[in-house]
Every structure is written in structure tokens, then in C-alpha cells.
Amino acid sequence: MAGQAQEVSKQFAGGDTGTIQRPNKEPAGARIVRMALPVSMLILLGVVWQVYVTIYDVPHYILPSPVRVGEALYTDWAILGPALVVTLKITFSALGLALVGGVFFAIMMSQSRWIERILYPYAVILQVTPIVAIAPLILIYAPTTQAALLICAWLVAFFPILSNTTQGLKSTDHNLLNLFELYGANRWQTLIYLKIPNALPYFLAGLKIAGGLALIAAVVAEFAAGSAGAGSGLAFRLIESQFRLNIPRLFAALILLSMTGVLIFAATSAISHLLLRKWHESAIEREN
Amino acid sequence: MKSPSPALSPAKGAAAPGSATGSDPLISLRAVGKTFSNGTVALEDMSLDIGQGEFVSLLGPSGCGKSTALRIIAGLGDTTTGRIDWPAGPDHEVGFVFQEPTLMPWATVFGNVFLPLRIKGRMASQARDEVNEALAMVGLEGFAHAYPRELSGGMKMRVSIARALITRPKLLLMDEPFAALDEITRFKLNNDLLELWQKFSWTVIFVTHSVFESVYLSSRIVVMAARPGRVVADIDVDAPYPRGDAFRTSTVYNKFCRQTSDALHNAISATMETV
User: How far is B117 from chain A (nearest CA, A)?
Assistant: First the structure.
């Protein structure tokens, strides 16, 4: 049969078949310019800030200069470092749990309309109720403040992953579902080979949102908890700096939070790109 | 098209419809009816015997239930009334080609063609030769690692056909597979399909709304009318195979096109009356 196939294919060769040209990599020069632009913008902003503060002699408890913020970052690292670690721990634990929980419940809901009808309203209620409003209750019920913060951040990060993944699992091409049915695929195979890959871009979009929200929720929850002392995160250090009018440290804490957010965004974007770059329109550059 | 060498073409000659030399038909639809949940009667009292080795086209206006009939034969959805028999034996492997290529965009050409075997629990490493063979049959060797988005419309359809062939089906069901393609590509795929059909002596049921395509390909054309979907004509196209591009301009072809076209017009006017 293989021999026959060869002969047949020889007759068919040509026509609409052709070679595939994959797009070339971006030239190194263009890449450097693309990277350098935002960096030089940042430097320019810093310089303008420094010059403004120096010329107008702005007191550091109103607006510290970037140099002063840098100093605070260095000298107060013994305080800010551990606080950053606490915030990072809460953020990433919440994100990890939201990821596991969101995907698990999305799969459960995609398998049974009944489970969806039972669970989904509660997921929505949890999502639309402001986290600051639930935080006091959670603080009472949770065994420790850290656990309460984790629950708050998890609640916020959970929903985008759940709703996006559910949407992705549901929007599977009906013809492909028919095809799987035709070949006698069982529920498990349809899930693994079809529904989950199809939901991947949706899930990754949810993960991007959840990553940002987890950090926001970790900070907001700490504000709401009013936690204090050695085991506290960056949010507490922010408030404390404000009370003490230690504005350079406040800025330093703020910069650490921003950078954490940027890194989370970059990491989730990179994961998304790595997983989708071969096939999904969102990760492929358009060429005309 | 290069006409296939005589050695390659099986002694099929003028395959008369139902010429399964006295043996049982492969499929037998008995008074099949299908009513959808919204009350639409897609099929009513459809009876049809399809013999082994036939190339049958289901031709009709949109809404005549030809795709529904095909899906029922494939086992996608039950009949409301009537039944489907497999007199030649219940053990039937079916390949299905949809109107769209229906490929998984996240999987390579290999992954897409391998899918039916994967569902049957085969390992990719063991199926490599079979997949490559199926790809060679549709003229796509060397494209195993391409992704669907990198392929043209015609090539995607070839992948879809290769996937339908991977299980070595006796029966190939095709639901307007070439409707979305340009004419040049369609003619090429028509020829390729005919060659594969002759070589491997499958039974093909081919849904189309093109008179010309149905006459070119089929050994038999079943014309259907809509509302409710039913069979109104059964035309034997007893022109010999292999058919090449010369057949497209022959008087025989012309004659069958006229005959089929008239039957289709009757089907359409029959539809209008019932509206």
C-alpha cells in the first residue's frame, strides 16, 4: 500500500501544495531600538524628576528625589526586603491556588451543567462583593492574619481564571466535537485532546488578569486587615511610612510593588507567548 | 491531469450503480425520518440502498436534509423514525470529511491526521508510518510538522481527507468538502479523490449542491427536495472511469449534467409548491 501511495502522490504533486516559509527573525538592530525606547524614556523621566526637585528645592517629605528614593531602597532594605518576601509569598500562593482551583472548577462545570448551575452563582457573588467588605469577616474566621490575606487574594484571583477557562472549555468547535464523537472518543479524551487545548488561550488571558489582581488583592487585604509588626508585607510598610512621614521609604515600597507587578505581567505574558507562539493568532505577528 | 496509467486503474470500467454483483448493499436506509427539537422536519420517509464501491452524490437545494442524512449515516444523531441497516455486516469503519477542514489549530498536520488513531489508544511512535502514508496519499508528504495556519485552503482540506483515510475506512462520507475552495483547487481535489476511490475501492457518499461536481464524480446521483427533505430522483451516471478533464467537456458529461439539472429543477419546484 505504501508503494501505491507513493505513485499516487507523485501524480498529485504540485498544484496547491507548496513550501512553507516561516517569517524571518526580527533584525538585531530593530530589536535593540525597540528595547531601548522605553528604557530611555524611563531614564528621561527620572532625570526630569531629579532636576525638578533640585531646582525648586522640594522638601523630601513632600516629594523625594529619585536618588533619595534609591538611598531609601538601599538603607531600608532590612525592613523592605522581608516585607517584599511576605507580599510575594501571599501573591504567588494565592495565584497558584487560584490557578489550581479555577481550572479544577472550570473543568467540573464543563463536565456537568448541573454542577455549573449550582456553583456558578456563588462564584459570581464572591467576585462582585468588594474584597474590602469581606476582609473583616475573613479576619475573624481565619486562623492567622496571613491565612486571611491569602484567602482574600485567592478570592480575587480565582474568578478571572474560572470564568475564562470555563468560556474556553465551552467554545469548542462543534464540528471537532462531532469528529471526536464519530471516532468514539470518551469524555476524558475529548477533554484532554480537544477541550483543554482549545481553552488554553482563554485560560492564559485569565492568568494574566489574575496575576495582576493577586498582587492588588494582597495589598488591599493587608490594608483592610490593618496587620502590623514584623511579619507584615509591603502594604503595612507603606502605611507605616506615611504615618512617620518617611516619604522616601514610601516611594521605595511603591517601586518594589510596581516592579513586582511588572514582573508578574512579564512572566505571564512570556508563558502565554511560549505556549501559543506556534498556533494562536494572538501570538503570531501579522504579515501582509 | 495526467491520466493514470492503465496498470494502476482497476478493472472497474463503467461501474453500474449498485453493481455490487448481487451482494448485499453496504447501507440501507429504511423510511428514515428526522425531526429536530424545534419542529423542523429535516428528513421524511427516506429510503436508500447504497452498494459497496459506489460513489453516490446527494444533491439538492439547501435545507433538503442531505447533510442531515450524511450525519445520521455517520452515527451523529439518531433517526426520529425508520432505521439504518448495514446488511454487509455491522463492522464498519467510517471516515468523515466536513465542509470546513475542521483541524485542531494547536496540533501539527501529523497530530491532526494521527487523531483518530490516538483516540483508539495507539502510540504516535507506532503510527508514524501510517500517518506518513496517509499524507502521501493526499500529496502532502513533508508537511507533517506544519501547523494548519501555515497551509492554504486546499492543503487544509487534504489534511482533513488524510485524517479521514487514516482508519482505512470502507465508507467515506463527505459533506460538501470542496464547496469553499476555488475552482482550480476543487478540480484538482476532484481528480485526486476519484483516483483514490478507484485505487482503494471505497464506498463514497458525497454531499454537494453542484450539478457539475456531482456528475463528474459520481456513479450515481440521488437528488433530494426540501421541506420535508426527501429523495425525488435517482440518476445512474454510467460513464466509464477513469474520468479526466476530457470528460468535463464531453457530450456524455453534458447529457448527464442536463438530466441532473432538470431533476434538480424539479426538486426545487417541488419544494416551492410545498411552501
Answer: 9
State the cell numbers at B111: 497530530
Q: What is the span of the domain harbouring residue A229?
A: 66-283
CB contact under 8 A, A279 and B139: no
DSSP B149-192: GGS-HHHHHHHHHHHHHTT--SEEEEESTTTTS-HHHHHHHHHH
Measured CA to CA, the distance from residue A152 to residue A220 in angstroms comes to 9
| Inter-chain CB proximity A175 and B100 less than 8 Å | yes
Is residue A188 in a domain?
yes
Is residue A164 located within the same domain as residue A238? yes
**Grid cell for residue A275:** 505556549
Answer whether residue A110 shows pLDDT above 70.
Answer: yes
Q: Taking CA B167 as the corner, what is the angle to CA B30 and CA B207, rounded to the nearest 5 degrees?
A: 45
Q: Please indicate whether, in this complex, the C-beta atoms of B147 and A198 are within 8 angstroms of each other.
A: no
B27-92+171-274, CATH topology level? Rossmann fold (3.40.50)
Supply B194's cell numbers: 476519484
Least confident stretch, A129-138, A232-241, B151-160: A129-138
Among A206-210, B104-108, B146-150, B265-269, which stretch is predicted with the lowest mean pLDDT? B265-269
Question: Any chain B CB within 8 A of the CB of A282?
Answer: no
* Residue A190 falls inside a structural domain: yes
Report if residue A186 sits inside a domain: yes
Q: Do B136 and A2 touch (CB under 8 A)?
A: yes
ipTM entry:
0.83
Domain count, chain A: 2
* Residue A258 pLDDT > 70: yes
Q: Are residues A136 and A44 in the same domain?
A: no
